[in-house]
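Journal club side-thread
Mid-discussion, someone asked how the predicted structure for our own chain would compare to the paper's figures. Pasting it here so we can look after the session.
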Amino acid sequence: MKIIPIYARAGITGFESPAEEYRQLGLKLDELLIQHPSATFLGMAAGHSMEGFGIFDHDILIVDRHVSPQQGDIIVANFNGEFVCKQLDKQRRMLLSANQACQPMVIHHYDQFSIEGVVTRSIRCHRPCRLCTD
């Protein structure tokens, strides 16, 4: 894969071809983004509750089931039959949103709760594509 460096600058006065200098990257995109291929799945974010953590509506989430969830990780979980993407607060047994308008979800002993995996990466599509649409 060839990488073309693109430098964003304020007050651009001219345009030089970014293809003039490129370098060869010795990895495939899946090798760069996915650490445990056999334990990884992709999901799509829905809603605005995680924008403060950089996860936006229709972002593609790379979720790794092999990684052990740690305090503060962004996870995908099954919470009472609904798949949610939230920040894990293990100490207080809560699922947190980045949006102050969303209340924390307390994990009670009677709740059906299972962590499906840890979000290790997210990908944002800046133009419509078949993977990023409903």
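Post-session note: The first helix runs from residue 29 to 33.
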